[in-house]
Design a protein that fits this description.
The protein is built from no helices and 8 strands. With 86 residues, it is mostly beta strands.
Length: 86
């Protein structure tokens, strides 16, 4: 299990970037194929070309974020939130 900060909500076709604690190491995945779960939920599954990640969201975003495909900000999205990935 890894703990870190998810920079933005996972976007299909792009690699997911997570900054890992406590040393700030960056992890970039292969491109995202699909995202399962509620965008405002506390747990989402992200399927990439090589792996599946279960992300548990443990905080609120530092800044409001616009969700892909919508014109509105989501106050409870995962941008800047602390996450755990398995």
């Amino acid at each position: 299990m890894y703990t870190g900060y998810l920079i933005s909500y996972p976007i299909i076709g792009r690699g997911m970037v997570i900054f890992r604690d406590p040393h700030g190491h960056r992890m970039i995945t292969t491109p995202v194929k699909r995202v399962l779960g509620e965008s405002a939920g506390k747990m989402i599954y992200v399927e990439t070309e090589n792996s599946v990640y279960r992300l548990e969201i443990h905080g609120e975003p530092l800044f409001p974020m616009r969700m892909p495909g919508s014109g509105e900000s989501e106050p409870s999205s995962s941008s800047g939130s602390s996450t755990s990935a398995r």
